[in-house]
Amino acid sequence: MSGVQEALIQVENLHRVFVTDEVETHALAGIHLSIARGEYVAISGPSGCGKSTLMAILGLLDTPSEGDYWLDGRPVASLTPSERARIRNRRVGFIFQSFNLIGDLTVHQNVELPLLYRRVPSAQRRQWVQEALDRVGMSHRAKHYPAQLSGGQQQRVAAARAVVGRPAILLADEPTGNLDSNSGRAVMDMLAELHREGTTICMVTHDPRYAGYAQRTIHLFDGRIVDDDMAVQKPQDSLGGTVERRA
Amino acid sequence: MTTLWQDVRYGFRMLAKNRGFTAIALVTLAVGIGANTIMFTMSDLLLRPPTKVKEPEQLMYCAIQDALFPWFRYSAYLTLRNSGLVFSDCLAQGDDARPTTLVHGNSVGQVRAAYVSANYFSFLGVAPAQGRGFLPAEERQGSGPVMVLTHRTWRRLGADPNMVGQFLRVNGVSCQVVGIAPEGFTGATFIGPDLWLPLGSHLAVADLSRGRPPRADLGPDRDYPSVHLVGRLQPGLSRSAAQAQLQALVARFKREYPRQWKPNSSLALRPPGRFFIDADVEQEQLSATLFSLVLMGVSGVILLIACLNLANMLIIQGAARRREMAVRMALGGGRWRIIQQLLVESALLALLGGILGLVLAFWGTSILRAWIGSVQDAELRCFRPSLNVRVLVATLGFCLVATLLFGLRPAQWLSRCDIAGEMKDSAGGVLGSVRRRRRGLSMVGQIALAVALVLSASLLTRSAFQLMRPDPRFPLEDKLVVQIDPLSAGYDRVRSIQTCEALADRLSSLPQVKALGTSPRLFFGGGDVLSISECTPAAEDGGARRHLARWAAVTDVGRDYFAALEIPLLQGRRFNLRDGAPNAEKVTIIDESLARKLRPDGNALGCFVQYGGFGEYSDPYRVVGTVAHVPGVGDPEVHLQMYKPAQPDQLSPYLYVHVANRKAAGMLREQIAEEIHRIDARVPILSIETLARIRKADTSIWFARFGARLALAAGAAALFLAALGIYAIKGFMVVSRTPEIGIRKALGATHWDIMSMVFREGLVLTVVGLFFGLLLGLGVARVAASLLYGVSPIDPVSVVATVVLLALTAVLAGLIPARRAARIDPMAALRYE
Ligand SMILES: Nc1ncnc2c1ncn2[C@@H]1O[C@H](COP(=O)(O)OP(=O)(O)O)[C@@H](O)[C@H]1O
Ligand SMILES: [Mg+2]
């Protein structure tokens, strides 16, 4: 069990079953996975294979139907809802495919949100927000509203919001899915930068070009890990070919 | 037409689709329209009191102006009727409002009798439902007494189908029932008597039976009461021409009734009052209109709140439909088409709400009827609001007004939407909510109106409580008032006096009775149109007289009145037996306020006072004692009080019993009834009540309570609507912002963070509304300060109560949406993005 202690994320035999209208969907069917501190992991697989479900469970937004999950060496199954909220707030950062910025709040206020829920004093809040916006290169737009920004800029703000609280892990679910290729590349470069600065990243993508940014790529199919490729330098096109064949 | 039908069908589909919205909207409208319908039934009753009289617009009341008193002697009525001038026919109605005792088997009650000319029913064009009206012979003095009952009295007596022909005792005189009036007929006026007797019965039934001999100085008129005169103008005769012709009689009247008719007295014609025959119909109309305006104003505010509320909800709900509107416009729907469709939807809502409102109003008016039925004042009890065709039409009108009020602005707003902006709206990267600006004003407006109503209601309620609270110096719960009517048993005056004395003796020896007093009239504070002046006994009538008060109370009291009522003696002495003797010196006991009026230091013993009315003055009375002032009921004015001893031949049928233990009062009531029954089973007991209950039933207190209840109901309705509004707004906010709430939870917001966010939503608007509402309410209270009794218009208790109530309402209304928001599953919320 020594590996458990070292890993930031450790899941064993994870299952997630959705029951809707008496139809059971096995979104996850026995996942074993361990992510170490400082790793950059990409999760890929065809649509509907359970990527988002896995991310939600890792981010404590959802609970597994079966199986164990240790975050930072601590089992999360026994946490109360408010403890889960606290961990989401302090340990996890989310980036979503559709940015999900709040339209009524300015860029600054959006980024500040996790710190507000953490009751960080205002002076420190201002400083951290400034730093986060600087890191994603968006500090000049702090007073703007999200609707006034392009998609790529919005996603950078979303990334700032995700990292402002210095989370242990950044979960990004298809961060480039709604972006054109230029903006997409910019966001990927930014994630790579964050990773270099020490952030652990777990990213879902089914774009093989972007999977190459990660050190490790996990392939999901029908709720199972079919391939866990630890190789750091893998030719990008051959990887893409694999994914396409499987889909 | 077909497009309208399409719109209606589409509207129904929309309402069925958004069930939650529809339910809240319907309840809101039902309350708004229901409240207006209820208030309208009252206004309708006040402004258009129903009457069964045929062609009432032909009726003219004949008034005597600038005379000593404004009613006709019977002989003058005959003169006018027989003159053939002006009227094709005219009726006379006695001016006698004294209560009458009606005994039928075991039922004993006080009723109002009207003495009328024999042509009364035929003149008004109403045939009795059973039996007949009066015969000309019955108008003449000395014919056997007969009467016609109102339908209501007949029903109250058991609705006996064989009532006609039976004999009932009226003031102890056996009277035969010859007819029963049709249902709803109240006579020439809306406020009517309980039974009618012909003028010829007045002497026997109203005077002789009560021990009042005919006034010999009136000549042939001594056998009849003074009367009011109402005629129907001859066809084709205008009112002014008729009035001019009538003056021919004035000279004759001045000759024949020199004491009543002054040199400048004249006759005038005017429509009879709707409520009181001799009232000025325009004055009546004016006060009824004013009262109605207040009622409709209050319910109008409720409707306004409801509409503001709905406009809000429509805009919020409409935000979700902007896309639909954009598509319709893109497909070529004109702006007016869209406004029309939205207005049809609003009208549908309003109509359905109106139907529910009618149900509410039906229920509300029956509660109102019950409240009104509880009033002591028999005249007020005539007001029985109920739904009718006019009310239905009015309700329909309210629906229309509501549609325009709440539907127009959202329709305009929605129809103005920016097509391109809506259509290109991409898979939203931005989680937006409806801009809040739009509803700021209506939210503040409705909260302010609700707060103003609640504040007024709490002021009126506090005032009613102040009014109801008896003066602690005069405990009323331990004082029983027994009212008996030995004259109605058929006893003559002497025997009646003996009976009262015997009963008083017997009751005062009961173990629980601490003291027992008597008086000829029920008196406990208050005043009357009587003047009091100081005089010097030496001077003859018209000598030195110092006028002290125009409105005062002069009361005859029997034995131990002050002791039984615990009215403290401040100076001098109480009455003794000798004071009442026929040739004794005339002495009086006055209250402290009169004493201070007489002598600033209050030491008025030995002063002489006299009282007067209608230009006549009593003998001088020497002051022998001063007692505490007894406050009137519901009247903050201090009226001077003067007591004089009852004469030995004066009947004192009111017995005041001071009970040793106030908890025993209830038990003692039954014991007293049994005791009276044992001593003389024939003596009718009119009532045995504690003074506290009598006071509570007083008309002024009833009115204060009635007003407070109405205001409370209105305030509750307004608060309820405000709560619904807050609930709806927060509910919609939670629904429309579900993804945003999901994100916030993903970012680590706890349950409490989310709940407090929902609570904070609209908080500023609520506080601003509260502020303006308090200002508005205090402003209204200042203007209407004269309606408040013992409460300052800026009453901190009411203000605090209002704030607390609003806060509670806001919290309660926010609770369900807040909990729903807190339970939002971020996973599910984000899947809907
Ligand atoms: N809340 C839910 N209720 C029912 N089924 C769900 C739910 N969430 C996901 N699923 C199902 O689980 C499977 C995996 O979904 P998801 O994790 O979103 O796939 P993806 O890999 O495309 O992100 C799909 O078949 C999806 O329909
Ligand atoms: Mg997905």
What does this structure look like?
The complex is a heterodimer of chains A (247) and B (833). With 247 residues, chain A is α/β, with parallel strands linked by helices. In chain A, 38% of the residues lie in helices and 28% in strands. In chain A, the strands form 2 sheets. Chain A has a 6-stranded mixed β-sheet with strand order 6-8-9-3-10-11. A 4-stranded antiparallel β-sheet of chain A has the order 2-1-4-5. In chain A, helix 4 (107-117) runs parallel beside helix 6 and helix 5 crosses helix 6 (151-163). Chain A is globular, with a radius of gyration of 18 Å. Residues 1-5 and 231-247 of chain A have low confidence and may be disordered. Chain B has 833 residues and is α+β, with helices and mostly antiparallel strands. Chain B folds into 3 domains: 2-44 and 284-468 and 701-832, no CATH class; 58-273, no CATH class; 479-693, no CATH class. In chain B, the strands form 4 sheets. In chain B, strands 16, 17, 18, 19, 20, 21, 22, 23 and 24 form a 9-stranded mixed β-sheet that branches. In chain B, strands 3, 4, 5, 6, 7, 8, 9 and 10 form an 8-stranded mixed β-sheet that branches. In chain B, helix 2 (19-47) packs antiparallel against helix 9 (281-330). Chain B is globular and about 105 Å long. Chain B starts with a helix and ends with a helix. Chain A binds chain B through residues 56, 59, 61-62, 81-82, 85-86, 88-90, 94, 96, 98-104, 113-114, 117-118, 146-147, 151, 154, 161, 165, 178, and chain B through 427-433, 739-740, 743-751, 753, 826-827, 830, 833. Bound molecules: adenosine-5'-diphosphate and magnesium ion (MG). Magnesium ion binds at residues 51-52 of chain A.
